[in-house]
Write a structure and sequence with these properties.
heterodimer, A: alpha+beta, 5-stranded parallel sheet, 5-stranded antiparallel sheet, 18 helices, about 35% helix, B: alpha+beta, 5-stranded mixed sheet, two-stranded antiparallel sheet, 8 helices, about 10% strand
Chain lengths: ~650, ~260
Amino acid sequence: MADKLISKIPDGPLAEKWTKRKSEIHLVSPNNKRKLEIIVVGTGLGGASAAASLGELGYNVKIFCISDSPRRAHSIAAQGGINAAKNYQNDNDSVYRLFYDTIKGGDYRSREANVYRLAEVSAAIIDQCVAQGIPFAREYGGYLANRSFGGVQVSRTFYARGQTGQQLLLGAYASLNKEIAAGTVKSYPRHEMLDLVIINGQAKGIIARNLVTGEIERFGAHAVVIATGGYGNTYFLSTNAMNSNGSAAWQCYKKGAYFANPCFAQIHPTCIPVHGTQQCKLTLMSESLRNDGRIWVPKKMEDVLKLRKREIKASQIPEEDRDYYLERRYPAFGNLVPRDVASRAAKERCDAGYGVNETGLAVFLDFADAIKRLGHQKVAERYGNLFDMYEKITASSPWEEPMMIYPAIHYTMGGIWVDYDLQTTIPGLYAIGEANFSDHGGNRLGASALMQGLADGYFILPITINDYLSHKFAEPKTDTSAPEFDEAEKAVKARIEKLFSIKGKKTVDSLHKELGLIMWDYVGMGRTAEGLKTGIAKIQELKKEFWANVNVPGEAGEFNQELEKALRLADFLEIGELMARDALNRNESCGGHFREESQTPEGEAQRDDANYMYVAAWEYKGEGVEPELHKEPLKYEFIEVKTRNYKD
Amino acid sequence: MEFNLKIWRQKNAKAQGHFETYHIADIEEEASFLEMLDILNEQLIREGIDPVAVDKGCKSSGPVSFDHDCREGICGACSLYIDGRAHGPDDHVTTCQLFMRHFKNGATITVEPWRSSGFPVIKDLVVDRTAFDKILQAGGFISVRTGSAQDANNILIPHDQAEKSMDAAACVGCGACVATCKNGSAMLFVGARVSSLALLPQGRPEAARRARAMVAKMDELGFGNCTNTRACEMECPKGISVEHIARLNREFLKAKFSE
């Protein structure tokens, strides 16, 4: 079955691959586009931009989201910015450098051709967004402003205060609204995809639950696009929104789409630390803060102890007693090392006992120097809303005392396996944005998620999908009374009935918290073979407990948030196991995946290129059966694969 | 901390609603308002499992439904009317950024959904805000096709003007302005969008059409008029200024004269 993993990467020089592929792709004439239907699931940056662009092309698009409005998708919470190789700063940036930084940042576990294309279309994204009226930050001359971000040495990040994701999403949502008004896109808010329908081996529709009425509904199309984001909420506590989930992607996996590199989860270094047991989610503080903020812990244990007892304040600790550990360990990049490196360094200091809050799981992010150097106004302009947000949550002002931060699960690089056209192993099923695996390898650089979502949605999918649809325009509309729809609907209804029938003693949230703890302890920042095996056993046990002892109150035929959560948790339990399985298989440290067995004497991550330079693509084999691993070898023809070095 | 929670319960859009009062204890000061509701829901579900586990006096219609998602003040999903104020007693926050330290220990807290004919109740504290989507579909966009744009730096926008546009664009679409307004007016929401685009050169070609269409849709959907009480500005979680309503009025009048 390994022949399903055909990446379809065009041959020829790197810089000409996308042009070459575009010239090969079949077109669909405007009168035929009108006959074709496309389902897009998810309305974040990927889904909204894809649906709007496909609508503009003349396709009939149906778009689904679980929120009350497409504008609530979690892309909205991205703060810091979006990368683009514009070289507006004259700092010698280029498509090649953005490509190179992204491949290197991903620790050489992504495809050269995909990443190059991402860098290639990045500039057009900014043009598109400005044309839509997105109020990016400007210089006094009226030109666009940039800031720098982790893992790079140029300033290529465009931003709208600390609300870049919001503004980009509102832009894509506005384009979507334009198409809804034009009648090319039909919007289905408060609908959750619960299954994928396959007819003759091709994706032909979905089963969705109307979250207001509880009805199970059928939708047919000529192609289906999954744009439902990542599965970070497997950990319960993460920076993801409460309703973000991996279920749509997981249903595709269970219907035959391969799932790639599930163990690659990003742990973001700058989040507000956990405050207590009643917490339900973690709040991210933008990486852009590391541009001007300096990260440190005390050098002396006595200062640490006094801080924990609140006998002294951080600002009272003299300069010479502070350990700016990122600047010390990585002089060339300092506080701007990539996220995985910064997170592990924070964990290292806290594990050594230098954590600065009561739980021992926090480090300082200090702006005192920046305020001195830039002045209050400049700092407020750059980070004002982030400072406010921090103060609202913690009741402590970053203007007076440094922020306290700690790493948290933030993004998942793994996802549904796709070829160069973003098509999955199921014909007619596409995956874009965070939902696919393709561009970030083992670690995503800051300000690249927005770039990838919009690259896929505006400029890649609307071109590549034509190749598939060019063979479909003679086919009639999908008949949703086909037996395949009957069967899928029956299975969904049976799953829901089963959940209600259990009437157990545990709430969905309490079980999800248990899963989160297992994931953080055994599939978290430091992983070992033994720990992962224990983790898998514990997850399997918890899955049994869930199906025997969960309590889902209410009824199926009504607005029922507990049922929504239970359906998602059922999938998280399986996703968590596959993450652990993949982490166990990958006996190397790479990007966000750190195997303690595989490190240098200085404690840096050690890759094993001889054995693991491949994409791990997992195939579902049935309930209770071990999934099958397929390997897509990664070939680096154009760059030299090196050990990542952020020291000099 | 402990509280008495007087919460609006309504089974669905057609059912008659009523208040139920619950007692909740052992809440951390650091807990957010929505985390407190999560804990209440755990309690209410447990009551269904094992009634002894919950304090007396706690009759239950099951867990309380409420909209929420990002829990960091940006998605605009959360929408609770708490002790007579949209998003509760703290200034310029969404409900998810409201913390229990803002309440007196032992207080009785009243929680209601947004009340507006434009936002019918779906269940308990959840309302239907698709009217906002419809207003934006009427014209809250710039008609640019993917691929048509020129180089981004060909459009120069003075720093302060971009900042002003951003002030308006910060709207999260939560609906607090409507819920707060005695007339149930959506002028701040509409003003923010119209103003944000009208301030930018890219937004000018369609400015007249946009103002006309969005105002017409707002009226059609039953939102009230603005009588300049500025309550919306006070309760807007993003502090969006009524200056944008003034700009909407100017754009609307200009559009009328250009007809």
